[in-house]
């Protein structure tokens, strides 16, 4: 992160109004999407004037980029690589799947990155960069976990493929639940990876 990014993070950390705006923006995006989110609605939600929102975030792109950056950083804090043991990696993968289910599916939501990805053509380059970095963060972590479970016979490409497929199952499963209203769809979309983790972890 450059110096400007460091200053931005520090400022956000101690500015309650800025945090409240970002919280309201994240909530609005999850509810109605990026395009529908307006500074006027955010101002009403926070209890400030629209001009105050613009003061902290001059453009919609600035705001959503900050929200996505915070989302990524908070997620990264919760990601801990397991010890290089098959059983530990198996537990870590199951915990990752459980965490996605509890914070996204069980809340009848899609993840922030899923919602923003659906409106990719509307996003600013800086937001897209944060979005891409977030996906890569998860892919790198999943690749490490898979490699711990069965590194001896899997190629780097196979490990990467598994990571991509696991992540696609999580996000795809959450979309199925949202569309059908059937929570079991998520379990059906991810049960293969739980079974695989069990086999590879043995």
TrEMBL record:
Entry's Gene Ontology molecular function annotations: DNA binding
Domain (HTH tetR-type) ranges: 15-75
InterPro entries named among the record's database cross-references: Homeodomain-like_sf, HTH_TetR, Tet_transcr_reg_TetR-rel_C_sf
Superkingdom per UniProt: Bacteria
DNA-binding region as annotated in the record: 38-57
Keywords assigned by UniProt, alphabetized: DNA-binding, Transcription, Transcription regulation
Pfam families xref list: TetR_N
UniProt key word Transcription regulation: yes
Keyword hit for Lipoprotein: no
Record SUPFAM superfamilies: Homeodomain-like (SSF46689), Tetracyclin repressor-like, C-terminal domain (SSF48498)
Identification of the protein by name: Regulatory protein TetR
């Amino acid at each position: 992160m450059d110096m400007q990014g460091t200053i931005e993070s520090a400022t956000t950390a101690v500015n309650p109004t800025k945090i409240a705006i970002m919280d309201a923006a994240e909530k609005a995006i999850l509810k109605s999407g990026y395009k529908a989110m307006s500074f006027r609605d955010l101002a009403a939600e926070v209890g400030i004037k629209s001009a105050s929102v613009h003061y902290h975030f001059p453009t919609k792109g600035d705001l959503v980029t900050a929200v996505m950056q915070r989302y990524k950083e908070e997620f990264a804090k919760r990601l801990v690589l397991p010890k290089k043991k098959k059983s530990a990696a198996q537990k870590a993968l199951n915990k990752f799947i459980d965490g996605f289910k509890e914070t996204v599916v069980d809340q009848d939501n899609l993840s922030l990155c899923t919602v923003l990805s659906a409106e990719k053509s509307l996003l600013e380059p800086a937001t897209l960069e944060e979005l891409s970095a977030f996906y890569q963060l998860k892919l790198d972590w999943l690749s490490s976990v898979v490699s711990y479970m069965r590194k001896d016979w899997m190629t780097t490409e196979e490990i990467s493929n598994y990571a991509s497929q696991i992540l696609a199952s999580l996000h795809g499963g959450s979309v199925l639940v949202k569309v059908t209203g059937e929570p079991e769809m998520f379990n059906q979309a991810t049960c293969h990876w739980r079974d695989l983790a069990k086999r590879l972890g043995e």
